[in-house]
Amino acid sequence: MTKWKRSYALLTGMSLLLAACSGASGGGTGDAGGDGTTASAENGSGSNRGGAADSGEKVTLKVSGFKSGSELGAIPEINESFMEANPNIEVVYEGMPGTQFKEFLKARFAANDASDVIMIHPGMSDVIAYGKAGYLLDLSGEPWIGNFTEASLKATSSDGQVYAIPNDMNVLGVYYNQKMFDELGVAVPETWDQFMQAAERLKASGVTPISIGNNDGWMTLAALYTMAPGLVYADNPDFDAQLNAGETTFAEGWKTMVERWFALDEAGYLTAKSTGVNLEQAQQAFATGEAAMYIDGNWSLPGIQSANPDLAVGMFPMPSNGEGQDAIASAAVGTTFAINKNTKVADAAKKYLEFWSQTETQKAWAKSQQAFMTIKGETGEVNPALQRIADVVASGRSYPFLDQGWAFGGAATAEMMTSAQGVYLKAITPAEMLENMDNAWSSAASNQ
Length: 448
Description:
single chain, six-stranded mixed sheet, about 45% helix, about 15% strand, globular
């Protein structure tokens, strides 16, 4: 039984988690049909066999995805460039919002009528699940797969097979007030001890070190996501696999991490009474100089800069690592492109993905999504405020958002957010929070 449960908190937490995951993974919210690129998703005719793209025969390549309307980005321009370079291939794109697309895709695969190339959400429960079920081509042997960072490929790969290309990446990190740091002589921390020292110095100056809102628990989820890469996965990169196999638990693997996080609250480094503060209020407190740091994703930067255009702001990866270890960023793939295993135009589909694997194509796409690039050694046109953490991602020192590697991530993250509120309110302990997460995981596994 869960030791801390308030139904309204769980429902609110789950709703905001879904919204956050949609934003973090590019889960389209625009209206389908408004971009002029929609079409039926019938597969190519029997005459459009795999070799047609090289033979000069005109073929139609059907592409579908969860980007449409205002979120379509550079897809039309990229498709036009591809068709100019490959005049015998006509690309027809069909887009719709993310939630709608997930149901659409299930129905199309069930009817053996999915498009040739498919934009699929990253992670175990989406693109990897479809790949393991036999719906997608294995791309591991394609030379252009090597263009992408190993970190980004984790969101599309399993057991040595690569089921899709990772097109863009979002990041969670620690925003900081550069002017405040400089005036107080606080250097950007690179280890956990330095982070704690920085927080103490900021607190002594009279400002809140870390602005956070926990009325729904999502910002604690975000904080733990930033801590885990350097603290949990640096020592045990197989934690997710062990968790999915039932060989470990959150209580075993996360004990030190949650103790360290909630110790920040005990020390007065977090917003006081944060369960009564929402994300927007926390972001505003940081933007107006009431707090020195704020933990969130790159997608929140426009809101911060809109609230205070004059704010000198930067972002660094959470330094949960020890001395002599590198900080590791928390970064997640947003969109992927996979090839329907039953496509009749496999050569054309591979040409399309090869085109998307080129640096210039990925630069155009990342810019249109205000995201980071997944190409090795490339960051694209990054906002200067994000350059520090972008360099870390480009170096390959990143780990995906945790739930992308979890078989029962929905149950675990919902409980994480709800139980975190209980810890702040002293209703449960950090250990009981982890016990609740393990119970939620076990329940989801047993109901599979």
